[in-house]
Amino acid sequence: MEKLVSLAKRRGYFFQSSEIYGGIQGVYDFGPLGVALRNNIKRAWWRTMVELRDDVVGIDAGIIMNPRVWEASGHVQNFTDPLVECKKCHQRFRADQVSGPRHQEDGGEFTEARQFNLMFKTFIGPLENSSTQVYLRPETAQGIFVNFANVLNSTRMRPPFGIAQIGKAFRNEITPGNSIFRMREFEQMELEFFVPPADEMTWLDYWKNQRLSWYQSLGIRPERLRLRAHGKDELAHYARGAFDVEYEFPFGWSELEGIAARGDYDLAAHQRASGKDLSYFDDIKRERYLPHVVEPSAGVDRTMLTLLIDAYHEEEVRGEQRVVLKLDRSVAPILVAVLPLSRKEPLTQLAQQVEHQLRPYFRTEYDDTQSIGKRYRRQDEIGTPFAVTVDFESVNDHAATIRSRDDMTQVRVPLASLKDALAERLATEG
After folding, report:
1. Which of 75, 248, 298, 412 is the residue whose CA sits 20 to 30 A from 69?
2. CATH of region 334-428
3. Please, what is the angle between helix 300-311 and helix 2-11, to 10°?
4. What confidence tens digit (pLDDT) does each residue in 138-158 have?
5. Whole-number Å distance between alpha carbons of 216 and 257
């Protein structure tokens, strides 16, 4: 983890937020490569979950919602963690993450555990009192549930169908940690899949397998992934079943995504609290019911961390250590780097022309700084699958060298065939 976090900062994947002022715990900023990787993750998720299906549509709900939403959903009363505080140093911890009655570092006695609500509070308008208090959403799911009738009435969807959303969520975690694994500001990719009540467990089985396969399609090693069923003591009171897609992180097996059968808990709660009818009438079977919900819920940040960890390799090449991110081409921030062998004309001019010609077809980068060997190493570290080297011969023979990141092989290709040659290689990658 330490090596990866160091690489992430050095190469522009992610940084501690407000770092020049000492940072702020549990919040991270994402650099140029981090933004590109995150966008590729979100694009891959949306493509799979929405665009390639005829039974899912998307929405984008507001971060700030009417506070009655969170009362109805149970978040105001129940979205809590047990909190203890060391009486000596006044550090605060989740009660389930400490052992014994005293702080191991300084021997200070812990207070009795009290429940701490994880929702961030703010105010709407110029007054700051209980009548203007609102919350930053702790999950994106409720925005889908309160819009269920709107989507139903504005589309021709009928159960089984899903509503998908990607967006920011906020949780005032007592002890965030493990870099971007657990944060106070994070981004979710959630699907609420509405089904006839009798079909709920069938769809739970379907979605748990679909979601495991999706992570494998991103190039994550299958032996590092597993599905784990929740025990009865882990299930939420309204859930009929749940699975976690888990990954073997450096700190152990932990949740990558949750897939839960939520029953009709959410729609029923909002129907009671709002007085609005959220049921569905099946005009074929002539029956009315509240749909049950299967929810696959993933995190952009946690997926990003998993991809970086899984792709990180250290190798020895000709007596020197090489660090390489073997990112799958579907998510790699840069697919093709164009590198002139020298900064002299006319090499740089030709290399820039090559990069501009390839840019409409691939995610490209032009780099002419430092020696060619150091530039290869840099591209290896950021996960670029292929580098195109323009050398002194290129001016005469109108060809360039394609270097592969994973096996470091090099092949000479005519400039006129470069796009097709790269497209063929990238199509077979991963």
Report:
1. 298
2. 3.40.50.800
3. 110
4. 999 999 999 999 999 999 899
5. 13
